[in-house]
Design brief:
The complex is a heterodimer of chains A (about 280) and B (about 450).
Chain A: H1 7-28, H2 41-45, H3 49-52, H4 62-74, H5 87-118, H6 120-133, H7 141-149, H8 152-177, H9 181-189, H10 194-232, H11 237-246, H12 250-278
Chain B: H1 42-55, H2 59-69, H3 71-81, H4 84-96, E1 102-107, H5 114-118, H6 124-127, E2 131-136, H7 140-148, E3 154-158, H8 160-167, E4 177-182, E5 185-186, E6 188-193, E7 209-212, H9 218-229, E8 239-242, H10 245-253, E9 259-263, H11 266-272, E10 276-281, E11 292-297, H12 299-303, H13 305-323, H14 328-335, H15 345-353, E12 355-357, E13 363-365, E14 370-371, H16 378-390, H17 400-407, H18 410-419, E15 432-434, E16 437-439
Parallel strand pairs in B: 1-2, 1-3, 7-8, 7-9
Antiparallel strand pairs in B: 3-11, 4-11, 5-14, 6-9, 6-10, 12-13, 15-16
Helix pairs in contact in B: 1-4, 2-3, 10-11, 13-18, 14-15, 16-17
The chains are: A mainly alpha (about 280), B alpha/beta (about 450).
């Protein structure tokens, strides 16, 4: 492992890289002056600013995006009708869906993982199914879900469920199966029952692996919700991206990417804290 | 207001003609009566008809009596025996209220949906006692699935979609849907990338990659027909992909496609962003062609007849309002915002007013670039069916007349139009002019052949 670099040395370098990137971007998208042909003013009035000068609408620069970001963040929680809601509301919707699908997955995956981990027979019997279903892209489930569940809101939660269930299941099973033999033997000599062994010995021992599984799952769930909402629409940050794409508004899409990244980071940190809480050292 | 039921107090009328007792063009099915907003509408007439039928099972006796004493005397005599006026009012009022007031209607954010959308901010739904939520939807397949799942009570669809769904083409099993009204006529265009400015002759288009919004769309059929008429085989010489409209402009810009036949505002948006030019408006291919439809599940007509009737009146009224040139600017302002189309207002305005930049440096003035006419002509359904046969989407032979009658609700749309004082065509069939050729619904067979003109 490399020695940790102190924050005060890394941060200025990060800022420098960011500034260089933004400046290069701004310069790259700056409108070229004097390139357009003179067209009659009535025609020009019907076109976008860039098209009127004979070009195509350029990619927005960091300044334009920053301005738009300030505009969006000034009032993030407004609701003006079914199809016009603030970016904060959209993120809240996405978090709600991820939370619902992820919790359901945890409720199913952790007990099932325990069973699989504790019983080699069950492990061998279920393994083929898990191996086949695990690599399926969660979005491939979407048409099936829509067709059979017939409710788009439940379908997107189902897709989150199905994508977050596998890492948790496999990690739980692995964590439970690899608990030290000696510890189990000690439990047995102390005449602890199966239930007591599971809760007092196996659970604390396997907890770090289980939380790692949850951490992987929440990352995948957050990736998938954006795509699922783009498909199904209605509300959520994914739908917001689709909607701004519909308007060909690149600035909004860049902002959405930034937001998705920040929220994903926050979710990961949250489970990182949980991991630290259950970690143990020998 | 014109009567829907025949006047039972006229000796000229034959009440025995159709068992439904209502005047309708021959060949159209009889349908359940719609409820009027007030007490004097068709249900009042229905009460009169029912009473007269009960009193005079023999129609000849009724006619003879009316001839002898005159309608006024007979009416007075019957009213002394039977409270006709009370029955009339009671019947009309009891049935008038919508069974379901809170409705969800899905739409795709394109100008074709103008009447469905603008009826919300401009209060047309509310005026007919409905509380409608219009929900922007991500694509045609999604709108279809949500409509099938009844998440939407009614939906904006491409005119061929309810036909395909009812026939079970492109869906798991047949889903009985109906075109309650046509949303818009015309209003589409072929847009090409700027680099093809010099290649305006479609005969030079071999190898082009085109986008259309959906397989079951007028866009697909019109583009294929346009190409076939110009000697280009749409299956072998070019590539036609289904691409969601907003991605058409982005794909055009990225040089993934050479052009598209798509809905507005995206043709105009391509010009606005300096990416493409408008090659031809579909109005010039087939003036008055249908594009999008206001679709309802067929079950709604019998299960919620009053809701259906109220919805129908709201939509027809909104359509008529959108059609008037003097309202177009106001409508454009109402629907361009974030809650609806989410487009620059000038783009939507250019589409609706027909004064637009064509991308070639000219300002064109085509006031009827897009039109709004709710009447679902059966001849349109016939043509759509010929094209589904022509391009192999529909592998079996079907009875065009039967499908058209079931899916295109000319009778209901006609009734709502008549209530609003609009003129209603006598027959739902007419001869269409498509790219200089006539489409005669009496002889649709030649149009179902592949026929690529060399």
């Amino acid at each position: 492992m490399t020695t940790a670099v102190p924050f005060w040395r890394a941060a200025p370098l990060s800022l420098l890289i960011l500034a260089a990137f933004l400046i290069a971007w701004e310069i790259a998208v700056m409108p070229r002056a004097g390139q357009g042909p003179a067209v009659d003013p009535e025609y020009a009035a019907l076109l976008g600013q860039a098209a009127a000068q004979g070009g195509t609408t350029p990619m927005p620069g960091p300044i334009a995006i920053g301005r738009r970001l300030a505009e969006l963040l000034a009032d993030p929680f407004y609701v003006r009708g079914t199809n016009d809601q603030g970016i904060g509301v959209q993120i809240a919707w996405s978090l709600l869906r991820v939370g619902a699908g992820f919790s359901l997955a945890a409720l199913v995956a952790i007990p099932l993982g325990f069973l699989i981990g504790m019983s080699p027979l069950l492990n061998a019997a279920l393994n083929p199914f898990i191996q086949v279903l695990r690599p399926v892209s969660p979005l491939a489930w979407m048409p099936l879900a829509l067709y059979s569940i017939k409710d788009s809101a439940v379908s997107s939660i189902f897709v989150i469920f199905i994508c977050s269930v596998w890492p948790m299941l496999l990690n739980t099973a692995f964590g439970v199966a690899t608990v030290r033999r000696e510890w189990l033997n000690v439990a047995r000599t102390l005449e602890a029952g199966t239930w007591k062994t599971a809760t007092r010995v196996i659970l604390p021992a396997a907890a770090p692996t289980i939380v790692t599984g949850m951490r992987i799952s929440i990352g995948i769930a957050w990736l998938v919700i954006v795509a699922a909402e783009m498909l199904v629409g209605g509300t959520g940050i994914g739908y917001w991206v689709w909607n701004q794409w519909n308007n060909l508004s690149i600035a909004d899409i860049v902002i959405a990417i930034l937001m998705i990244g920040l929220v994903g980071l926050a979710l990961d940190r949250l489970l990182g804290l949980a991991a630290a809480a259950v970690a143990w050292r020998e | 207001m014109a009567r829907i039921f025949q006047d039972p107090f006229s000796e000229k009328v034959d009440l025995a003609a159709c068992s439904c007792g209502r005047a309708h063009p021959p060949g159209l099915a009889c349908e359940a009566a719609a409820a009027p907003a007030d007490g004097t509408g068709p249900l009042g007439e229905a009460a009169e008809v029912a009473v007269m039928r009960a009193l005079f099972p023999e129609d000849a006796a009724r006619r003879a009596l009316l001839r002898l004493f005159g309608a006024g005397t007979v009416l007075a005599a019957i009213e002394s025996l039977f409270p006709l006026a009370t029955a009339r009012e009671a019947l009309a009022q009891a049935a008038g209220a919508p069974e379901k007031r809170d409705l969800k209607i899905g739409f795709i954010p394109i100008t074709c949906a103008t009447p469905i959308i603008m009826a919300h901010p401009m209060g047309f739904y509310a005026r007919h006692g409905l509380n409608v939520e219009v929900v922007r939807t991500a694509g045609w397949a999604v709108i279809r699935d949500r409509a099938i799942a009844r998440e939407y009570d009614a939906a904006h669809m491409l005119a061929p979609m309810p036909i395909a769904m009812s026939l079970g083409v492109g869906v798991g099993q047949p889903q009985p849907f109906a075109v309650a009204a046509i949303e818009n006529i015309n209003g589409q265009a072929i847009t090409l990338a700027n680099k093809h400015r010099e290649r305006r002759n479609p005969r030079e288009w071999k190898g082009f990659r085109f986008a259309v919004p959906f397989d079951f769309s007028m866009h697909n059929y019109l583009l294929r027909h346009y190409l076939a008429e110009n000697g280009v085989d749409p299956d072998r010489d070019v590539q036609i992909r289904a691409v969601p409209p907003p991605e058409m402009v982005a794909n055009l810009r990225a040089d993934n496609i050479d052009g598209f036949l798509g809905p507005d505002p995206f043709n105009q948006r391509a010009v606005f962003d300096g990416v493409g030019f408008i090659h031809i408006l579909t109005k010039e291919l087939w003036d008055g062609h249908p594009c999008c439809a206001f679709a309802v599940p067929r079950g709604m007509i019998t299960d919620q007849p009053n809701t259906f009737a109220a919805l129908m009146r709201a939509i027809v009224e909104a359509t008529a309002h959108s059609q008037k040139p003097e309202n177009r600017r106001e409508v454009a302002q109402a629907i361009a915002g974030q809650n609806y189309l989410n487009q620059p207002p000038t783009v939507v305005e250019q589409v609706l007013t027909g004064t637009f930049a064509d991308g070639l440096g000219r300002v064109q003035r085509v006031p009827d670039r897009i039109g709004f006419d709710p009447f679902p002509w059966h001849s349109m359904a016939y043509w759509i069916l010929t094209q589904m046969r022509r391009w192999g989407q529909l592998p079996r032979e079907v009875d065009y007349a039967q499908v058209a009658e079931q899916v295109f609700l000319a009778l209901d749309a006609g009734r709502a139009m008549r209530d609003l004082g609009l003129s209603v065509p006598v027959s739902p069939l007419r001869i269409e002019r498509i790219m200089g050729r006539t489409f005669d619904p009496a002889n649709p067979a030649p149009w179902a052949e592949r026929a690529i003109r060399a």
